[in-house]
Amino acid sequence: MAKRSNLFNLALPFNPWVYFLIFLAMNLLLSYFSLSLQTQLWLGILGLLLPLSLAFVSISSPQLNEKFPLTQDLFPSFHWSLAIGVGLLALFIRFYKLTSLSGIPTMDESWFGFYALELAEKGIWHFFYGATQVPPLFCWLLGGYFKLMGPSLDTLWSFPAVLSTLAIPVAFGVGWIFFSRSFACLYASLFALGFWPFYLGRFCIPTGLLLVWELAAFLLTGLFLKAKSSKEQNRTALYLGLITGTGFYVYLQWPLVALVVLFIVGYKIARQPSKRFLALGWFLLPILLITTPLLLAGIREKPGSYLSMLWAFQKNGSWLAQWKICWDYIRGFLWGFESSRFSYKPFWGGFLNPLTGSLSLIGFVELVRWRRTGFSICAGICLFLFILPAWLTQEVEMFRAILELPFLIGLSVFGIFSLLLRITFRRRWAVLMGLLMVSAGFDFYHLLGPYHQACYSVTNQTHFTKSLDRWKAYQIIKKTALQKGPGIILTEFESTAFNPILLLATYPFNAERNPKLSLNPPSWFGFVTNINYSPFLGKHFPSSQWFDLSIGPSDPEETLVLGIFPTSSFSDSSFLKACLNFNQALHSFTSTTINQAFGKSNRAILDDLLEIRPLAGSDPFLLSCLEERIFFNAMSNSDKFEALNALKHAITQGYPAAHLYNDLGVFWFTQGNYAKARESFEAAIHSPMNHTNALDNLRKTPLQ
């Protein structure tokens, strides 16, 4: 007789189907229905916590001759038709509406696309990229992809789709090497059809590469553990060392994966009777050789300020707020959570739909039942260890928990095994097909419905993450290029250089940047700038077209406008040449700004901008644009003298646009000079066009 492993000596039968149906009902309610907090708490306690507790106390310990479920085959034969069908569905959902489903790329994607564009164009590379100082491998691979396929939105988004597709066969290999053929097929199927894996494939950020590298490390770890001869073990140890070493170039969470792999390799070698250190040397040597250049670069560049900023336990931090963040990550897996930030979160329920979420809870119960096995111990450690990068930060960003994905999917497959092993062979196919079809239906709708709608909604979630006004500009520019051929798109006429997405999106038809388009002189050129300049520019260039890029209720200070100019409208080409020279001169400043590490001073950028003032010449528009950028950098450096000087130059020698007066008013307000602040706000209000919040600022300014 099997002994009962329960706390209360209860002999309750554990029927996974009963618990699965209870969990499914509760997860459906918590995921898709608007319920009060009190109702959610009662459902969580009575519908999830209580049944889980009963399941834990009712499960019996495995019998001595009982076979581990995941090593069993659920079906006598392998159906290639099913594998082909799943593969085709996986490709379809990853490449369907590749450049329109998500709208405009996120700010993160625009930065990584910019780094790769610089590498493809000019061979500019780094060991650490951007404000977050991420390791370089993703940018290097994307740069090579751009070099091969050409930079564009198509290639920006097809690259992560390819990575997401590549994860499927690697996941199959992981399942095959550790468990049965049935587990491998189901594991790969949930990677192919699950929301989180194909949602990840819609974002050109390093977490997609991290997932592939994690799976590859697990696959090679399995090959190392299964090696039968010392020669085979040394060879697999070398390969495992290579993938572990290069993983440090992938993303910031990799040291946790390397720690797990090192522990497994060390444990395996320590149990061998002879030649134990030879395989360890083959494993450690490539890691040492590969990571040394990155380590030396880290000593020189001192990255890490961004991580210290994310660290949860800052001064005056709240433990209660941190517990809520940790709970939101759990909710993000199972039911979803409300957030004013984009957060790479799910938009309809959790990353696991109610069905796969319920299966994962059944799988977790089974994991506890088999807790004495090496797999369960290792999986339990990884489940806790791999969520720490998310739990130890002071905000919710769901992709920080990406290392959990292989284990959550594994728990869902464990749950499927628990259900199917309790029914006959004849019924298993029908039940399995039903589970997969319902699960895929939930997840496909999640991507094509709620997520797609959220990308085009004007909310705080998209306002600070996706630039819908630049997406509108891209659509207009693309239509113009289709009608008139490639043009000259100038991308440096904004006050800041933080969102380079138009540069990448318009690259295929931008003769200013794309060297393949420089043979034929373009018939038009255009640029995006602050909308308050348009009355001045429209007056001087009556043949120009102006497109308001505002979408919904946006911040009035951030309203942009797109100007399209026919090159034939200029009696001479001096203005166009001046614009081109000015635009090209600012390329390097944009590059330096976007590549700057978090917390580092940008004083050098300000000094260099001050030196190129003569380049603007006497053209009022170019002068105002340059002084705007000087003002922004001066304020970032707390250089009040240069900031004030820049605004005065922009207004008196350039175009006296409303947003410049409004910035001047805000400057005087912060200095306590309310009389000059009111004067500046009133000037903004009476400008030819006033897309600013100067009226609200004037009302808030005290009278003197």
Q: Short summary of the structure?
A:
The protein is mostly helical and 704 residues long. 62% of the residues lie in helices and 3% in strands. It is elongated and about 90 Å long.
| Discrete helix count | 30
Unreliable stretches, pLDDT < 50, 5 or more residues?
Answer: 1-10
The largest pleated sheet is described as: 4 strands, mixed
Oligomeric nature of the chains:
single chain
User: Helical percent range?
Assistant: 55-70%
Query: In total, how many beta strands?
Result: 4
Outline type:
elongated
Task: Name the beta content range.
Answer: under 5%
The whole-angstrom Rg is: 29 Å
Distance between the termini: 90 Å
Which structural class matches the secondary elements?
mainly alpha
> Strand order within the widest sheet?
1-2-4-3
Mean pLDDT metric: 89
Highlighted features:
704 residues, mainly alpha, elongated, disordered N terminus
Tell me about this structure.
The protein is mainly alpha-helical. It has a domain at 467-595. It contains 30 helices and 4 strands. Strands 1-2-4-3 form a 4-stranded mixed sheet, with helices on both faces. Strand 1, helix 22 (501-505) and strand 2 (524-530) form a beta-alpha-beta unit. Helix 4 crosses helix 5 and helix 28 runs antiparallel to helix 29 (674-685). It is elongated.
